Amino acid sequence: MILPIYTYGNAVLRKQAEPIKTSYPELNTLISNMFDTMYHAEGVGLAAPQIGLPIRLLIIDLAPFIEDDPELGAFKTVMINPTILEHSEEEVAGEEGCLSIPGIHETVMRPDAIKIKYFDVDFNEHIEEFIGYQARVVQHEYDHLEGHLFTDKVSPIRRQLLKSRLTNIVKGKASCSYKVKSA
Predict the structure, then answer these.
(1) pLDDT in tens, 86-131
(2) Which positions are annotated as active-site residues?
(3) Do 138 and 60 contact (CB within 8 A), yes or no?
(4) Which of 75, 81, 112, 146 is least enclosed, having the fewest CB within 10 Å?
């Protein structure tokens, strides 16, 4: 089932998400719906707050990059209750966009490598390290669980220049090809 994506200005995007318990109802259905929603919106990552649920769940599928980089394109994951344990001191710039902030792309500095602990769909614990674009996407989605958006990481001048476009998103005036829930 395709769910509406909550856009900039919705309070759930600014809340710190709560951990999920093993007894969370219909978790597999929720994960399936999140993948359906993400694919429909042509995204590569989606966090539960983006569909209105303040829980620590994110999904990623980098399959659109398979032709450019088979290793990158093979990266598909579900992370439950993730926690970033470490990150590199070295930061790199990269362009980011977000399904919750349609039509806006900005250059963001992020650590080039991270170490993260999370649980899979069977609640098996994993500790993994990611570098490069995988690390960037995981951090972007992880930020949603902490109540942060990529626009928080752009310079104050860039943020000021984006103000009217962000205000239009809050007012429901953003144009996109997928269902959204405006503030």
Answers:
(1) 999 999 999 999 999 999 999 999 999 999 999 999 999 999 999 9
(2) 141
(3) yes
(4) 146
What parts of the chain have a pLDDT lower than 50?
none
pLDDT at 174 (0 to 100): 86
| Residue 177 token pair | 């090809």
Take residue 96 and report the two structure tokens written for it.
Answer: 């980011």
pTM over 0.70: yes
Q: How far apart are CA 147 and CA 62, in angstroms?
A: 23
Q: Which two tokens stand for residue 19?
A: 């951990």
The SS3 assignment for 179 reads coil
Please, what are the domains in the chain?
Answer: 5-181 (3.90.45.10)
Q: What is the pLDDT of residue 118?
A: 98
Token pair listed for 17:
């998400």
